[in-house]
Amino acid sequence: MFAKLMNHTLKMISLWFSICMAFHSGHGEVTLEQPIYTNTIQRFENPGDQNSTQENEVKALKKVFLSNRSITCNDGSQAGFYLRRSHSSTKWIIFLEGGWYCYDVHSCRNRWLKQRHFMTSSKWPETKDVGGMLSPNIKENPFWWNTNHVFVPYCTSDSWSGTKPPSPNDMFSFMGSFIVRQVIRDLIPLGLENSTDLILAGSSAGGTGVMLNLDYVKELLHEELMLTQINVRGVTDSGWFLDRTPYAPTNKPAVEAIRKGMDMWRGKVPRRCREEYMSEPWRCYFGYRLYPTLKSELFVFQWLFDEAQMDVDNVGAPVTKQQWDYIHKMGDALRQSFENVSAIFAPSCISHSVLTKRDWQSVKIDDISVAEALHCWEQKTSRRRLKRLKNGKVLNNTGARLGKRKRRRNQRKTLGYANLLNNDDRANVQDASVKMKRRRRNRINRKIQRNKIRSRKHPQNSENKPSLTSNNPTLDKRISRSVLQKNRWPRKRHCIHRRLERCSWPQCNHSCPRLHNPFTGEEMDFIELLKSFGLDMNSVADALGIDIQTLNNMDHAELLNLLTQQSN
Ligand SMILES: *[C@@H]1O[C@H](CO)[C@@H](O)[C@H](O)[C@H]1NC(C)=O
Ligand SMILES: *[C@@H]1O[C@H](CO)[C@@H](O)[C@H](O)[C@H]1NC(C)=O
Ligand SMILES: *[C@@H]1O[C@H](CO)[C@@H](O)[C@H](O)[C@H]1NC(C)=O
Ligand SMILES: *[C@@H]1O[C@H](CO)[C@@H](O)[C@H](O)[C@H]1NC(C)=O
Ligand SMILES: *[C@@H]1O[C@H](CO)[C@@H](O)[C@H](O)[C@H]1NC(C)=O
Ligand SMILES: *[C@@H]1O[C@H](CO)[C@@H](O)[C@H](O)[C@H]1NC(C)=O
Questions:
Q1: Which of 101, 108, 231, 371 places its Cα 20 to 30 Å from the Cα of 557?
Q2: Per the confidence metrics, is the pTM higher than 0.85?
């Protein structure tokens, strides 16, 4: 969504960094996962083999308008969502679309002229096909392909926070916050009532929307609708921004825009944050201020060099040393803002959003993809919740077993073991607990074996990576596969929730989305991209303090290395 938006901003930056993610076929990668997630893969093998035309018809997300007709898009058209039910799963993912915002009469008129699809439902198709975490394809989406999927189109331009109904004096209404609540209410009779897990996810403005609405959604389900068995969690993608001083004066500084916008939208922010920032409630649109006040569990994904952040910072193409430095500091500031975030995945790349991209599994830090990290986090928080529910009313008929579960859990904890067991059928607690008992014994045995093997094979464990700069993706893939197979078991152990790329320069590691030359569509690396746009390599050489000859002859890896060190 944002890519489309960027085209309209006509900013230098979007010209220079117009980046797409390459569509890797992904076949190899999924085969890779099989040894680890055998349970998932085997259980769901059959549906994948079905007749593909049939499959597509069955599997499209279908349009549903909200039951409350007075909750609308900007232009007064009826709001709604797209739904794909999965009767074999009790998990739901509700995804909030992104696409910037507008914040005053002028910017909203502009948006109406140029990006009307973000303000009305009048042209919504009957069905939709969304990739990544909302894909029904097991290869593209190994962990959530079979869950209930809900895609909520963004048509309120308010970062999903507005509570302003239509009025004769205003051109537009802003009802994003109402839409989220109504979507939940309308999903109850469609099956959400009996669910065990709800993930509220979103990208870009939708990612910010997740943070703004998460606690309210939880409250609505648990306190108002008394559906306390539903575990409510959030995943925010590329919606965590910083209210820093822009690099150059700009006609739309983020802080100013949000402040105006909040007024115009009658923006609603989480209660505890509003209390914290009484006089400046608009601060609550910024993740690092909002996060500490949130009660619900949140997983944060953010590119360290987010295109939208660079855009609002108005930094432009990094030609001068000042610009290089500013971009660097941006990455550092972002990294710092994650200091107290318990679940974070932040690759060092220039890009924007990830969750619904078809090749999202190729985004990795230390060979763990964002999908795997999310899956792992989901499992962990599920277990924590089970513990909390132990004394509760919901699982009352399994109470006897929960005592045992707790003991087992504690045993696992002392082993430091990270459970990656597929959890789709968690409703069926009894069944699972019998299986888990059996698995536990096997696991402990395997772990002992593993530790023996590892201490022999990998004295320091890791750093056996393929070269950063190999221009041969097939080779890279092959190497990394063999590495992965060797590391099959250690990977499980690496189920940690904070993953921040260590290197500090954009694109400094090989798993970044490929950069594309916007004119030819060819893949290229960062330096080539800069050159192709006529980046003055003399300035770069100056900034780095070396002569142009040396620069031109420099190996890319070396050059990146040098750029990386510039910040320190
Ligand atoms: C898929 O379904 C169509 C119609 O139901 C049928 O004609 C076709 O042979 C099927 N293809 C495969 C590969 O099963
Ligand atoms: C519809 O939504 C509006 C705005 O939230 C609310 O005031 C109204 O009571 C709702 N109507 C129904 C029937 O729920
Ligand atoms: C939820 O489960 C109950 C009991 O199985 C069933 O009667 C009810 O229809 C279900 N609700 C939905 C919306 O499927
Ligand atoms: C993290 O928490 C500590 C202690 O509460 C606080 O001093 C620090 O400012 C926090 N960091 C961020 C980035 O919020
Ligand atoms: C790139 O990532 C690998 C592991 O994924 C890491 O070992 C290496 O240090 C990273 N490179 C830099 C320059 O940080
Ligand atoms: C919990 O217990 C109550 C009363 O004993 C019963 O009505 C209810 O069905 C039980 N809930 C579940 C989920 O079994």
A1: 371
A2: no
Of the residues 186, 237, 306, 313, only one is catalytic, namely 306
Task: For residues 401-421, give the mean pLDDT.
Answer: 39
- Give the pLDDT confidence of 184-234 residue by residue, as tens digits: 999 999 999 999 999 999 999 999 999 999 999 999 999 999 999 999 999
Whether 352 sits among the annotated catalytic residues: the reply is: yes
Determine which one of 149, 328, 352, 375 is catalytic: 352
| 332 included as an active-site residue | no
Transcribe 296-349 into DSSP letters. SEEEEE--TEEHHHHHHHT--S--SHHHHHHHHHHHHHHHHHTTT-SSEEE-S-
Q: What's the rounded Cα separation, in Å, for the pair 140 and 361?
A: 7
Ligand with minimal distance to 52 CA: 1
Query: What 3 state SS string does 442-501 have?
Result: HHHHHHHHHHHHHHHHCCCCCCCCCCCCCCCHHHHHHHHHHHHHHCHHHHHHCCCCEEEC
Q: How many residues does the chain have?
A: 568
Asked whether 515 and 19 are in contact (CB, 8 A), the reply is yes
How far apart are alpha carbons 384 and 164 in whole angstroms? 38
Listed range (114-118, 309-313, 444-448, 496-500) with the worst mean pLDDT: 444-448
Taking only the tens place, the pLDDT of each residue in 223-258 is: 999 999 999 999 999 999 998 877 877 766 788 899
The verdict on the CB of residue 53 being under 6 Å from ligand 1 is: yes
**Pick the residue with more confidence: 45 or 232?**
232
Please list the residues that pair with 202 across neighbouring strands.
Answer: 96, 236
* Burial class of residue 36, CB neighbours in 10 A (0-12, 13-18, 19+): middle
CATH topology (fold) of 31-389: Rossmann fold (3.40.50)
Please name which ligand lies nearest the alpha carbon of 188.
3
Domain boundaries, the chain: 31-389
* Model confidence at 261: pLDDT above 90: yes
Cα of 46 from ligand 1 centre, angstroms: 16
Reported in sequence order, the residue ranges of 42-133 that DSSP labels E, i.e. its strands, are 61-65, 80-84, 91-96, 127-128
CA 255 → CA 3, 108, 250, 286, distances in Å?
Answer: 22, 17, 11, 9
